[in-house]
Design brief:
Largest sheet: none
Strand content: under 5%
Number of domains: 2
Order of helices and strands: HHHHHHH
Number of strands: 0
Helix content: over 70%
Structural class: mainly alpha
């Protein structure tokens, strides 16, 4: 019976249905009327200004980041290379040599040589800090020839230190296998 009533209703209303899209803002107006009918204070949901504001903020952010990328000061290393281009080649050579020796030293580390290796690595860190101070002094306009000589000397001291420590580690390794009981006085 109810089915018949529904069918009659739809037959009667056929052609009267509205298939058009509601006007812009329909939902906001509807919610506003509902809130007023129930005594609820509404909060306006106008977002028209958010879109342009967000686009402007994005553009401003991109501009600021771009300016920072292009206006950064050159690093100390870059400034040193500008002052003395031969420094980069020399530093590359010595740094590779030192790094190889440090890797050998770390491979040779054992319980018997741990203190010696750790002390050598600590001293190398101090020498590296001294080298960075020399670079800064060169950038600040110190006597170029003296500072460049001191920088090369710093590398040479590091290499000599590594050679000496590696020789001492080798000596300790060679003494270890010998049995003290076999020696007679």
């Amino acid at each position: 019976m109810k089915k018949d009533n529904l069918e009659n209703l739809f037959e009667r209303l056929q052609g009267d249905f509205d298939f058009e899209e509601p006007r812009v803002g329909h939902q906001e107006r509807f919610l506003e009327k509902m809130n007023q009918a129930h005594g609820v204070a509404s909060i306006s949901r106008k977002r028209n200004w958010w879109k342009p504001l967000s686009i402007a903020a994005s553009i401003a952010l991109i501009c600021v980041l771009g300016l920072q990328l292009y206006s950064t000061e050159p690093s100390i290393k870059e400034q040193v290379v500008e002052i003395a281009p031969e420094v980069s080649e020399t530093e590359f050579y010595f740094a590779n040599l030192i790094e190889e020796q440090v890797q050998l030293l770390r491979q040779e580390k054992s319980p018997e040589t741990a203190k010696l290796v750790d002390d050598a690595l600590l001293k190398l860190g101090e020498l590296e800090s001294d080298y960075e101070a020399l670079e800064q002094e060169l950038v600040n306009g110190g006597n170029s020839k003296m500072i460049l000589n001191a920088m090369i000397n710093n590398f040479q001291i590091r290499i000599e230190l590594l050679k000496e420590v590696l020789a001492n580690v080798e000596t300790i390794k060679n003494l270890k296998p010998q049995d003290d009981a076999n020696f007679t006085i």
